[in-house]
Specification:
2 strands; mainly alpha; 248 residues; 7 helices; two-stranded antiparallel ribbon
Length: 248
């Protein structure tokens, strides 16, 4: 892969520097190889013997070797740094993967907890409470007597009304919340129970009054029965006396 192609993929500064040094090393190696090939094809009179067996190479070749060795030394140092960075990256990646696994496990636990709590909430909502079996008047009858509960039972929050006294004094607007029992399903059920209690108390009073009247009627009937009994005895006595008089 050429350096330009690799630089378009690699973005890490250390790796980009490593690729640049590698590219320089490649260019220097190719230049040295070309120089050696040129010297081999066109030997001078001083180098007509086998190349550089008993004498130092030419200065240009020595300079090329020096540049090549310096680049190799830099490349080795860069290679050690890149290897160290790679190990750190692997360790960081492993730690991040472990943290991600831990978070994923925590998320699954939260999902399980949420599912369990939703199930418990549904169980509580569907629990057959005793107040649901109370013998009360029907909802149609109650709503007919109190039509305002058609809207109040649907409220999820208590209605808010402004405090007139604070507005008159000018201290700002203050919110005064109505009684929490005056809205929602809970308030609706309490209102039905309260209405049922009221009806039963009135019915109890009516029953007591009727019982009292019944006792009075029973007493009056007993008195009249006693009077009728006396009247029967008087009639029998009168009949007996009349019969005796007729016999005479």
């Amino acid at each position: 892969m050429a350096f330009d192609d690799a630089s378009s993929v690699v973005t890490d500064p250390e790796l980009v520097s490593f690729l640049e040094i590698n590219s320089r090393l490649q260019d220097e190696a190719l230049a040295l190889a070309e120089l050696l090939s040129t010297q081999a094809e066109n030997p001078s009179e001083e180098t007509s013997a086998p190349p550089y067996l008993d004498q130092d190479p030419p200065q240009d070749i020595q300079a090329a070797y020096q540049r090549l060795n310096s680049i190799v030394a830099v490349l080795r140092g860069q290679n050690r740094r890149v290897a160290h960075i790679t190990r750190q990256s692997k360790a960081s990646t492993a730690a991040s993967r472990a943290e991600l696994d831990r978070l994923h496990l925590s998320l699954q636990n939260l999902y399980y907890e949420q599912k369990h709590l939703l199930g418990e909430i549904a169980t509580c909502e569907n629990f057959p409470h005793p107040f649901q079996r109370l013998p009360m008047v029907s909802e149609e009858t109650f709503l007919g007597l109190h039509p305002e509960w058609k809207e109040k039972r649907l409220l999820k929050e208590p209605p808010v009304k402004m405090d007139q006294e604070s507005e008159e004094v000018g201290e700002g607007e203050t919110a005064q919340v109505e009684n929490a029992e005056a809205y929602g399903e809970e308030g609706y059920m309490k209102a039905r129970i309260k209405e049922e209690r009221k009806e039963r108390e009135e019915l109890g009073k009516t029953v007591q009054e009727l019982s009292k009247k019944k006792m009075e009627l029973v007493k009056e009937n007993a008195k009249r029965k006693e009077e009728l009994g006396k009247l029967d005895k008087d009639l029998e006595h009168f009949i007996d006396v009349s019969t005796n008089l007729l016999d005479l």
